[in-house]
């Protein structure tokens, strides 16, 4: 924690000049240079890093796309061998989806959200940093497989059994499974902290219904990440276990089922399309009112549409699997749901058109891309409704029609709005304006090239050309269409190159931008251009959806420190913690400063990833322990630790620091994390019951191998620990901390006893995990329980130590409440596991 | 009924997600229930749609429709009595409950036309 060496006179700060305030805030929030720059946790810097890294991966993915189109330009080409072609197509999809689209939009959200809601940073800055490093290292590991010519080659969806060790014996699938899981840590980190930041750190007065629409979209996207990614993480873990150890989760002969992979993948995969689309639609809903010069028509309708999209998109996954042999009635359910999701999308399109119709649109450069989006995305949406119809879906399944549809939705629905947004916010990033001439050339080349490539690809598909074939014979009627598609794709590339050139050149040659150059209404334009590390000198009271339209003087008064929290002498990074619904101030949130721990933890996790790839399991185990130690050390520097906020003094009239309350953002972050954890757990239960019900060779023994007595005993011990913890937390709520340390140590001991009993049950079960999927999935379930039990015990042990150091107690009661959530979750899931794995098989039988 | 609706705090933004969550639960229940029923006791194909499986799926769907429709009406009434933030919350919730109700109706319609387990 930085301490400014002046007397702490908070009430005196308000009369300081703006320059002095800026200087003081910069001393606390400013970014270090040199090697220390690796410790930066600031959202502005990390958001930019995410976006720049995302663009690098976009170039790699684009290059791979060009290779694909070169190969397909003419019939009977041997530009690439089939093996390399498979690697290139798989990596094109993987890089674009996992290493470009999601991280790029997350980067934009990480950069924008605090500025739009009047905060100084995201609520868990070190988590932002960990997310970035995991993304970078995971992306590098995955991309390196291309250099080694060992890239995954089973398609970006990695269907089993093609991706299983029998048909993909190399390391390609392992690179995908481990690399993507590593990258998904990043997505989940961003998802958790974006949710908490939007709900709990809006500036005072910004009630939920006054929030910028972009924040609504990001809130939905972040929650969808939290719920949608864990099924794929589970699937990846199971498939990697099958490949590495031989646990037959997806192998029919062992009682598994390859269709389970498809379910787990598309449970993630279809929501992912909307995870990508929603932030892009948020950009559209932000830009159109600005360029139309009027508020959006139907704010409430847009919120409605966002909520509907977020939920219904989880009910569509089986429409990717219409040809796998699912009963007609079940197909009809998913067909209907797939048509339903067009309703909220159509509502948004009509809202945008109505806003343009009733306003006076200015066709500036960002609006060109918005118009391109509207045309392309509506076409992609229409072909989506066509694909929702089962008979049509059967006809065009696995043809280029599907590839064309997907690109219309993803490029039209994500890339065009993204470029519109980047052009719009470019003056904020750099303080300079882009070139209209280069930008317009870039747009038209991209727009024409895109439609030339993919509109034609619809016809190639309707003529029957299958996807993922590396070559085709002449005389099929596909030659001219493929040639035109390939030529157009190069035109599109030239357009994108021009846009990127414009971006790069504008930093040096762009005209200096005037303040708020587009006359926007949202708070991010109250920042300096480019923004300072702390965003705002003072935090305003905002009770309107259009703060800069209703009060154009706001940026000046904020910069002069005329609003709240214009105090810096305490040396803390501070911002408001507000009520999630009303926006009333509840507490002052103090944020951690720059830290090495996120980088160290990510490096240790990278070692885990590489060790698993190279089958160096002992090293992987050691690296897991080291990563855990780094993360626990990171958690140590919280609350009233000397590096966090040892002094709880606040200005008269201000609310307390969050670490001195029972309702800080960490509580919310834990809740959201547990939602993700719950999604993982439910996916596991789905896998257990799915295999039990559907797998053709499922083998369940007559009597369960698990000791019911042992499990019940472990559950009772766990419940005893959880009950004591609840009692201690209740005491802290009343300001009592007598016996807190002893209580924590006792709970920890109970936690370790529960782990020991569960471990005994596992070892005594004598499971044949490589023989049957039944035993393998029980093994995974008990490993889950052990991990949660062990971590719960360690966390409580640390709380006991922190009580001893004086970091936790009646004066700082926050942390035990956070840990109690973990124990509650652990207790519930443990008993569900007991019921599902040990009780139900005894009741129902095999 | 009125007391129950009052206890539900229909102006709370949590209702933005309750209706659609109920839709999701209904959806998983009919899809999963159908799969389990077909695995455990598949009806004879010649029975057409007049099967116990279809009847149960329909019953679950009608219950979901009734619940969601009641919540829609409750939110509409509440919205009329409120202003500002509370009216916004209740109105959006009413729309979301209505969509969820119609969503169940639309997605459940195949139950009366397509025989199960085929």
UniProtKB/TrEMBL annotation, chain A:
One example GO MF annotation: heme binding
GO biological process, one term: respiratory electron transport chain
Chief place where the protein resides: membrane
Catalysis performed (reactions): 4 Fe(II)-[cytochrome c] + O2 + 8 H(+)(in) = 4 Fe(III)-[cytochrome c] + 2 H2O + 4 H(+)(out)
Family matches, as InterPro entries: Cyt_c_oxase-like_su1_dom, Cyt_c_oxase-like_su1_sf, Cyt_C_Oxase_1, Cyt_c_Oxase_su1_BS, Cyt_c_oxidase-like_su3, Cyt_c_oxidase_su1_bac, Cyt_c_oxidase_su3-like_sf
One Pfam family named in its UniProt record: COX1
Keyword Cell membrane: yes
Domain of life: Bacteria
Pathway linked to the protein: Energy metabolism; oxidative phosphorylation
The protein's name in its UniProt record: cytochrome-c oxidase
Organism of this sequence: Vreelandella boliviensis LC1
UniProtKB/TrEMBL annotation, chain B:
Protein name: Uncharacterized protein
Membrane-spanning parts: 12-32, 52-73, 94-114
Organism domain of life: Bacteria
Keywords, comma-separated and alphabetical: Membrane, Transmembrane, Transmembrane helix
């Amino acid at each position: 924690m930085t301490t400014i060496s002046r007397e702490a006179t908070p009430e005196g700060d308000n009369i300081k000049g703006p320059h002095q305030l800026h200087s003081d805030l910069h001393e606390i929030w400013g970014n270090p240079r040199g090697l220390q720059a690796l410790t930066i946790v600031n959202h502005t810097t990390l958001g930019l890093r995410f976006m720049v890294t995302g663009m690098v991966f976009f170039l790699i993915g684009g290059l791979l796309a060009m290779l694909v189109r070169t190969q397909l330009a003419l019939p009977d080409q041997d530009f690439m061998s089939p093996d390399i072609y498979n690697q290139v197509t798989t990596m094109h999809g993987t890089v674009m989806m996992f290493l470009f689209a999601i991280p790029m939009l997350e980067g934009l959200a990480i950069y924008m959200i605090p500025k739009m809601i009047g905060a100084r940073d995201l609520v868990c800055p070190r988590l932002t940093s960990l997310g970035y490093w995991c993304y970078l290292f995971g992306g590098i590991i995955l991309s390196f497989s291309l250099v080694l010519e060992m890239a995954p080659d089973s398609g970006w969806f990695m269907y089993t059994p093609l991706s299983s060790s029998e048909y993909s014996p190399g390391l390609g699938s392992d690179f995908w499974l481990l690399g993507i899981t590593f990258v998904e840590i990043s997505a989940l980190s961003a998802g958790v902290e974006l949710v908490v930041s939007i709900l709990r750190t809006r500036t005072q007065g910004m009630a939920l219904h006054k929030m910028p629409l972009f924040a609504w979209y990001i809130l939905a996207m972040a929650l969808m990440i939290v719920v949608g990614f864990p099924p794929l993480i589970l699937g990846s873990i199971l498939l990697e276990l099958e490949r590495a150890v031989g646990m037959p989760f997806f192998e029919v002969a062992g009682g598994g089922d390859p269709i389970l992979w498809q379910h787990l993948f598309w449970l993630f995969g279809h929501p992912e399309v909307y995870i990508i689309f929603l932030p892009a639609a948020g950009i559209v809903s932000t830009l159109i009112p600005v360029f139309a010069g009027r508020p959006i028509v139907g704010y409430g309708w847009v919120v409605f549409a966002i909520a509907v999209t977020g939920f219904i998109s989880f009910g569509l996954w089986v429409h990717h699997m219409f040809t796998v042999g699912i009963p007609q009635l079940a197909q009809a359910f998913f067909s209907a749901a797939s048509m339903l999701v067009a309703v909220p999308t159509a509502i948004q399109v009509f809202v945008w058109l109505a806003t343009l119709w009733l306003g006076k649109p200015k066709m500036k450069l960002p609006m060109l891309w918005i118009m391109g989006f509207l045309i392309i995305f509506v076409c992609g949406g229409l072909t989506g409704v066509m694909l929702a119809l089962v008979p049509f879906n059967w006809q065009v399944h696995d043809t280029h029609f599907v590839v064309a549809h997907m690109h219309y939705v993803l490029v039209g629905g994500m890339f065009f709005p993204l470029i519109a947004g980047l052009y719009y916010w470019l003056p904020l990033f750099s303080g300079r304006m882009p070139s209209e001439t280069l930008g317009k050339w870039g747009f038209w080349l991209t727009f024409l090239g895109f439609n030339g490539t993919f509109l034609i690809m619809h016809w190639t598909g309707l003529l029957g050309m299958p996807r993922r074939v590396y070559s085709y014979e002449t005389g099929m009627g596909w030659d001219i269409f493929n040639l035109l598609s390939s030529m157009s794709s190069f035109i599109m590339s030239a357009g994108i190159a021009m846009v990127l050139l414009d971006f790069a050149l504008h930093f040096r040659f762009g005209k200096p931008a005037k303040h708020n150059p587009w006359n926007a209404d949202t708070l991010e334009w109250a920042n300096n251009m480019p923004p300072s590390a702390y965003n705002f000198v003072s935090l305003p009271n905002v009770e309107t959806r259009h703060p800069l339209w209703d009060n154009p003087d706001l940026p000046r008064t904020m910069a002069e420190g005329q609003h709240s929290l214009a105090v810096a002498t305490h040396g803390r990074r501070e911002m408001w913690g507000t009520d999630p619904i009303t926006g009333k101030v509840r507490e002052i949130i103090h944020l951690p400063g720059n830290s090495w721990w996120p980088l160290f933890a990510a490096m240790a996790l990278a070692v885990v990833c590489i060790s698993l790839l190279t089958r160096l399991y002992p090293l992987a185990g050691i690296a897991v322990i080291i990563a855990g130690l780094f993360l626990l050390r990171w958690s140590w520097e919280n609350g009233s630790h000397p590096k966090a906020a040892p002094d709880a003094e606040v200005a008269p009239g201000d609310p307390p620091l969050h670490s001195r309350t029972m309702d800080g953002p960490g509580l919310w972050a834990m809740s959201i994390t547990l939602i993700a954890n719950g999604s993982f757990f439910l996916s596991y239960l789905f896998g257990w019951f799915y295999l039990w019900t559907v797998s053709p060779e499922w083998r369940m023994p007559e009597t369960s191998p698990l000791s019911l007595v042992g499990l019940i005993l472990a559950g009772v011990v766990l419940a005893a620990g959880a009950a004591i913890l609840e009692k201690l937390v209740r005491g802290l709520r009343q300001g009592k901390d007598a016996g807190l340390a002893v209580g924590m140590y006792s709970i920890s001991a109970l936690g370790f006893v529960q782990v020991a009993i569960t471990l005994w049950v596992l070892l005594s079960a004598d499971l044949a995990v490589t023989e049957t999927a039944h035993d393998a999935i029980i093994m995974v379930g008990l490993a889950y329980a052990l991990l949660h039990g062990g971590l719960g015990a360690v966390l409580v042990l640390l709380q006991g130590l922190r009580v001893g150091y004086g970091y936790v107690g009646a004066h700082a009661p926050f942390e035990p409440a956070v840990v109690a959530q973990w124990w509650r979750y652990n207790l519930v899931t443990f008993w569900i596991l007991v019921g599902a794995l040990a009780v139900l098989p005894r009741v129902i039988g095999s | 009924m009125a007391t129950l609706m009052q206890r539900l705090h229909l102006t709370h933004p949590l209702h933005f997600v309750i209706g659609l969550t109920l839709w999701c639960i209904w959806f998983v229940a009919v899809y999963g229930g159908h799969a389990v029923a077909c695995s455990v006791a598949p009806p004879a194909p010649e029975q057409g749609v007049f099967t116990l499986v279809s009847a149960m799926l329909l019953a679950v769907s009608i219950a979901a429709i009734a619940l969601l429709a009641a919540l829609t009406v409750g939110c509409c009434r509440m919205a009329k009595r409120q202003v500002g933030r509370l009216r916004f919350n209740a109105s959006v919730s009413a729309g979301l409950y209505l969509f969820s109700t119609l969503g169940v109706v639309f997605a459940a319609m195949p139950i009366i036309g397509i025989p199960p387990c085929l």
